[in-house]
């Protein structure tokens, strides 16, 4: 009989410990879910749909001025890990939409952007500038990469941190 009592007490202690650990795990999962929700809503601030794009005076790497009415704008950073994978999508969107070079603007921030410049210069007006240069500052870019589709009226149609996030289908 003492063995049976000891076994029941042991099972009771193990069940109580399991219950305490389960409640602790539920509390941690709730905290984690709240942090994930904050990250989703606390994303980079982009120009809102319908806002006018800022007027900026800058010169492209080939000596041309920045387009006054660009249709597609991309901001890239030389130290950004996600930027290189977005370049082909950016160029494909420009091609699929039929935008000529004068309607596409690519801004490369930071030193050593030669690979970006060479890749994009045939399809876009490319502006190379230091970190937090005039273009990045004027557009209040807080995350790289950032992209904008702009209407004929100079107002933002959509903005995103990925080309696919702009809501325009891009062919593979």
UniProtKB/TrEMBL annotation:
Which Gene3D superfamilies does this chain map to? Glutaredoxin (3.40.30.10)
What are the alphabetically sorted keywords of the record? Membrane, Transmembrane, Transmembrane helix
Membrane-spanning ranges: 6-26
InterPro entries per the record?
A: Thioredoxin-like_sf, Thioredoxin_domain
According to the entry, every stretch annotated as the Thioredoxin domain falls at 47-172
Q: What is this protein called?
A: Thioredoxin domain-containing protein
- Organism from which the protein derives: Streptosporangium minutum
């Amino acid at each position: 009989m003492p063995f049976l009592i000891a076994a029941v007490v042991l099972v009771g202690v193990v069940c109580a410990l399991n219950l305490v650990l389960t409640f602790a795990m539920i509390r941690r999962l709730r905290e984690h879910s709240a942090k994930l929700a904050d990250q989703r809503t606390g994303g980079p601030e982009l120009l809102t749909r319908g806002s006018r794009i800022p007027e900026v005076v800058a010169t492209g790497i080939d000596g041309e001025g920045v387009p006054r009415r660009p249709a597609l704008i991309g901001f890239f950073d030389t130290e950004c890990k996600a930027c290189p994978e977005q370049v082909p999508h950016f160029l494909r969107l420009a091609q699929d939409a039929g935008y000529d070079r004068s309607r596409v603007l690519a801004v490369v921030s930071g030193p050593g952007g030669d690979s970006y410049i060479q890749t994009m210069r045939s399809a876009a007006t490319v502006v190379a500038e230091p970190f937090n240069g005039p273009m990045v500052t004027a557009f209040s870019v807080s995350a790289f990469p950032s992209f904008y589709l702009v209407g004929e009226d100079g107002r933002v149609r959509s903005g995103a941190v990925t080309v696919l996030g702009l809501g325009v289908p891009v062919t593979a």
